[in-house]
Amino acid sequence: MIVRLLGEGQFRVDDSLLTQLNELDDTVEQAVEAGDERALWAGLQALAEAVREHGEKLSDDELAPSDAVIPPEDLSLEEARELLQDEGFIPDVPVEQPS
Amino acid sequence: MPGLMSRLSLIFKAKFSKALDRAENPNETLDYSYEAQLRQLQNVKRGIADVTTAKKRLELQYTSMQQQVEKLDGQARDALKANREDLAREALTRKAAVEGQLEGIMQQGQQLEAQQQKLIDGEKTLQAKVEAFRSQKEVIKAQYSAAEAQVRITEAASGIGEEMADVGLAIQRAKDKTDQMQARANAIEELTATGALEDYTSSGDDIDRQLAQISQTSQVDDELAKMKAQIGQGSGAPKELGGEEAT
Fold this sequence. Notes:
The complex is a heterodimer of chains A (about 100) and B (about 250). Chain A is about 45% helix and about 15% strand. Chain A has about 100 residues and is of the alpha+beta class. In chain A, strands 3-2-1-4 form a four-stranded mixed beta sheet, covered by helices on one side. In chain A, strand 1 and strand 2 (about 10) form a beta hairpin. In chain A, helix 1 runs antiparallel to helix 2. Chain B is mainly alpha-helical. At the A-B interface, helix 1, strand 4 and helix 3 of A face helix 1, helix 2, helix 3 and helix 4 of B.
């Protein structure tokens, strides 16, 4: 499984890590619902650390899409809410097609 | 409602699969997406240059605010020498307000520094990936049937699209941060320029403001006492003072 830490890059992690990541993801979501920024940051940091510790960084010539994407560790509550509500948080990348 | 992690990957997937659905001739798609990548890479470089420029401007502003602090300190001293404690208090109050804000700006500046380094790393990675795409597209063109090529193009192009979006987002966040700092710095400059003292604790509610005022007042009292001791107040008659805005 390939996981992207936004702002940092992609990591290849064993599928067995998914359960742990999902649990941490749940705590992050609860933190957003509770409006608790400290808990949000702690959760995001735990996610990033789990990936860094158990994962291996993808080399620059690998061009694979990620199976999971983890937001930056200093995501503000406002940004997190934006993220859960609409797609505006991620900038559009125009892919031009031959006409 | 899905968690942030799953939500984010869904957004990414949706964005890039949508863009590739319409691909017709795989070879053309490859060349066009490579050209688009090169253009986007230029945008990324420009974005990083913008952030760097904004940061430099903030550094200059920070230096000029530090000079303001020194100037206010000097004015307070002059005022005391002239037996104008009211003016000295005014100057020290402003000094405390500016100093408080400067500290916040410095902390934000350090965060920005770290982000900037990540941006530069991100640009390097992106550049390497675009280069990898360039060589892989030739392999795909030469070695695969149209159907197989389609699968590989989708993989490679979504991978690189994701990388672009990642760096793009990082640039956007760094820009937002410099904008916030800029607004804050401008507010302080205005404060020291116009002498409007009401807004120096503009964030926070009334209680915060009052607490900040109390702590600033005691800081000012302490400093006044210290200056008085240094100057040896009471010696000599009051002198003429050019006014608080005198430079």
